[in-house]
Amino acid sequence: MKKKLTKRQRGQSMVEYVVIVGAIIAALYSADDVMKLMRDTMKGSAEGYSYAISVAELPDENGTTP
After folding, report:
1. pLDDT tens digits for 7-21?
2. Sequence ranges of the domains in the chain
3. Rounded to two decimals, what is the model's pTM?
4. DSSP result, the chain
């Protein structure tokens, strides 16, 4: 009997998770400013990361940078 209860509890938590995530996504899409801010932040982070990789010096075979 306990196994059925545990399985039902797992199913209930999954439903709650989906409902909460859906509500958060709906709230984010309803506010255009938030989505624009998130998109710009992610784009800036990616640009900064790619720039950092392009200027970093790679180590030689001894493990030291030139």
Report:
1. 566 678 888 999 999
2. 2-54
3. 0.42
4. -HHHHHHHHHHHHHHHHHHHHHHHHHHHHH-HHHHHHHHHHHHHHHHHHHHHHHHSPPP-TTS---
